[in-house]
Structure formats: C-alpha cells, structure tokens
Write a structure and sequence with these properties.
The structure holds two protein chains of two kinds. Chain A is mainly β. Chain A is built from one helix and twelve strands. In chain A, the strands form four sheets. In chain A, strands 2-1-12-9-8 form a five-stranded antiparallel sheet, with no helix packed on it. In chain A, strands 7-10-11 form a three-stranded antiparallel sheet. Chain A has a two-stranded antiparallel sheet with strand order 3-4. Chain B is mainly β. Chain B is built from one helix and eleven strands; from the N terminus they run ββαβββββββββ. In chain B, a hairpin with a 5-residue loop joins β1 and β2. The chains are: A mainly beta, B mainly beta. Chains A and B meet through β1, α1, β8, β9 and β12 of A and α1, β7, β8 and β11 of B.
C-alpha cells in the first residue's frame, strides 16, 4: 500500500523553526489514478484519453512516443524549477538525445507542490487547488522555490521518497495557507510537435498555517510504501 | 401490555476481504478479484475483491524515475529487473507499461505457484507458471484495461488478464504479480511492481479459466 505523510514547517527569516505539523496526507486525486492508467495501458495518440486539467478543460493525453532510440515523455512530472522558470516536458517526439525538438514548457511554479487559500472539502474529482496562491512578491503572493524529489530509501518492509518545496513570503503582509497539493504533467503526442498539460494529483487542507511576511514555509510530502 | 423484543443480537466477524471499503482514506493501493469459470462461462469460484498487500520497491522506484524525470543520459537510479540485474533507467513513455499480449509472460499480470510471503525487495515472481498447454502450464490471454472511474471517495482503474487451463490437470495459483516496463536508451526492461500471495491458493480445474482483476485505487 502507498501512503504519504504531509509535513508543514514554518521558519523565521533567519532559519529558526517556528512551527511544525506532521500528519497523514489523505488526498490523492482522480487525476493521479488517470495518469497511472495512461502509463500502464499505453494509450495511443490515435485514441487518446481525455482528462480534466487545472483549468477545468478536457485534455487529451497519451503514452505515445516517436520511433527512434529516445522515447522521453513528461507524464507524471513533479520535479520543477522555482518561480516562473520554464519546466520542459517532452510530449513524446524527441528523436535524438538533444533537447531541440518539439518540447513544451510551463512555469516551474505550476509543477509540483502548490499552496492555496481554499478551504473547500477535498473530493476525488477536484481538478485544481481551491484558490491557488500565485508566485510572486505582490500582496497575497508567495515565492515558489524549486520542487525537489530527494531521499529515496528502502528498508524492508518500508520504502519512501520525499517531495518538498519552499515558499517564501516577501509580500509585505501575512498569508494563511489553507491548502496544499501536487500538480503533475501529462502530455499528448503529435507527429510534428505535441502538447503538455498540468493536472492536480493531490490536495490536502492544512487547517491554516499563518506565514508572516519574510517567513518561509516548507511543504513536504513523504511518499511511502509498506509491504 | 408487555412487548417482546424478537430481534436477536449477533456478533459476526467480517473477513477483511468481504469489507466493501478496502482502502483507508489517504491510501493508494490495489484490490484483487479472482474469478474461475468453466467452459460454459459458469462461475465455479470467486474470491474478493480483497486488498492487494504488496506494492514492492520497484513500483516506488519507477514512480521516482517518472515524477523526477530522471534524465536518460545521466540516470541516477538503478532498479532490479525481473532477471535480478540492476538496470539504470530514465524517464520515458514506457514507464509502467504492462499491456502484455497473449502468451507474453514478461509483461502484465503474471501468475505462479510460490507461496513465500512477499517482501519489499522481491523482484520476480517466486515460481512462474509458464504459458502453454503442457503439464503445469496456463494459457496467458492478452492484458485488458478498464477505464478510470471515481465515486465520492475512491478513484480506480482495472487491469485484467485471463489464464486458461488446457494442461490436462488442475493447477493451483498461489501468487500473482504485475510486471511493468522501464526504459533506457533503446532498451526495454521489465520490473515487478506488485506481488501478492493468495492464502490457500486458487485451484483452476482443467478446462476452466481464471480471470485476475487488479484494480489500482486511491481513496480519500
């Protein structure tokens, strides 16, 4: 069985831990199962699978890749650079080892762990954060760091890895984070190019973590399996 | 006037595999359903759905490769394949692929006769039942998939495979596994991501067919 622990830690601007909450994540969403289905079933581009992206638009996704030695595909991508730095997705048509062919990008802050202010009850068919907090330094915004995947460890009967992201409040005022979640990529192959879309795969309510101006919030999902 | 209460209290232990809600909130796992049918399609044995207990380490490692988007030119993870060889892997369109065709025993739902309890480090089915019509063999059908669906609490999809017994004798399946693909530069590789042991096994008489339904699920 796979589960996840959700750890929320708030730090002062000089790095002191001010608050820590550690509890089970409850909320892998329908889109996570859908992306696993697309990967397991090897959905072809001619008969793609339609699923709802974070804009509530129905998007075709597949497992198709072009012929050749390289079959890269951005499906399930969570790792991302910080802020607006572009995250590259391969839609499946990268015939050489070079990153020069029909790649699609999204701002890094839209990939990986997310923060929001929505308080609506989580349902399996949520397609986005309730109210996503934007990346930036304006009022009500948080600076999104990179979304890292680290610490893969296996020790029978358990295995785990960590997904984490830092959020810095340079907005000039306090922000209360009510929800966190994970956004992942899904892609659609076309012969000459392709598409990449973003899907919500997890969403959890925090109970409210008040992040004062100049403070940092570290959000960590520890993904675990136990036999 | 007196009233007699006729209802009798009773306490029954419900076997875990009979409980409808099989996953707890927050869990991502799978259920297994086993159905044996005779040549006329009549069900002769039916188990489950019951909790699949055992994602093994390769599931987590393939998830890591794909969510991190491990670069194929600088792979940072080695995963043990079903031949007991550590393999470097990169992200690809083949990660988790398990659409094994008829007769294919390297990909998809696999069955065996081993009954040793699973551990997280298991990398292969203990004792594979080969494809065929010889003694102790089963005919592997093509893997089929049921599209994702969701209710108020649970999201799921289905992976199905039929195993027909034309061996001339009964065969007992004790273990079931899922073999999935990984990929690195022009090389398809195969990894076990789930292994379950069926308590007491499930017997398939000669001439009958076992259908295995694996249903990966996420519960809120």
């Amino acid at each position: 069985m796979l589960t996840a622990r959700l750890v929320l830690e708030r730090f002062s601007k000089d790095g002191r831990l001010l608050e820590k909450r550690d509890r089970p994540s409850r909320s892998f969403l329908f889109q996570f199962i859908e992306l696993l289905y697309v990967a397991h079933a090897q959905i072809a581009s001619g008969a793609p699978y339609s699923m709802m992206d974070i804009t509530s638009a129905a998007r075709d996704v597949d497992s198709q890749t072009s012929s050749g030695a390289h079959y890269t595909k951005g499906t399930l991508r969570i790792g991302a650079p910080g802020g607006g730095s572009e995250t590259i997705f391969s839609p499946g048509n990268r015939p050489t080892a070079t990153l020069d062919y029909s790649l699609r990008g999204h701002p890094g802050d839209f990939v990986g762990i997310q923060a929001g202010t929505g308080v609506g009850v989580v349902t399996p068919t949520d397609v986005a954060m309730g109210t996503r907090i934007a990346h930036g330094e304006a009022a009500g915004e948080l600076e999104y760091g990179g979304c890292e995947l680290v610490r893969m460890t296996i020790a029978d009967p358990n295995g785990q890895f960590t997904i984490r992201r830092y959020f810095t409040n340079n907005s000039g005022g306090g922000i209360t984070v009510q929800e966190v979640g994970i956004y992942a990529g899904g892609t659609k192959y076309l012969a000459a190019n392709g598409y990449a879309y973003i899907f919500a795969i997890a969403r959890d309510l925090t109970g409210g973590v008040a992040v004062a101006d100049m403070e940092l919030l570290r959000v960590t999902y520890v993904v675990q399996i136990t036999v | 006037m007196t009233h007699e209460i006729k209802a009798k209290s009773a306490l029954k232990v419900i076997e875990p595999e009979k409980v409808k809600t099989l996953l707890m909130p927050g869990e991502v796992g799978a259920t297994i359903e086993l159905i044996v049918k005779d040549k006329d399609g009549k069900i002769t044995d039916h188990r489950g759905p019951m909790r699949s207990r055992s994602f093994v380490r390769q599931f987590l490692e393939l998830l890591w490769v794909q969510t991190l988007q491990v670069n194929e030119l600088l792979p940072t993870v080695s995963v043990r394949d079903t031949s007991n060889t550590l393999r470097d892997l990169g992200e690809s369109g083949f990660t988790f692929a398990c659409e094994g065709g008829a007769g294919i025993v390297t990909k998809g739902v696999i069955v065996g006769t081993g009954n040793t309890a699973p551990t997280i480090n298991d990398y292969t089915i203990e004792t594979l039942i080969a494809h065929g019509v010889g003694g102790g063999q089963l005919q592997y059908g093509a893997v089929a998939f049921g599209a994702p669906a969701s209710d108020a609490t649970t999201s799921r999809f289905t992976i199905t495979r039929d195993f027909a017994n034309g061996s001339g004798g009964a065969i007992t399946v004790n273990e079931i596994a899922l073999y999935s693909e990984g990929f690195l530069y022009n090389t398809h590789l195969y990894f076990m991501t789930i292994r379950d042991v069926i308590g007491g096994g499930i017997a398939i008489p000669n001439g009958q067919t076992l259908t295995v339904n694996y249903q990966p699920q996420a519960a809120i």
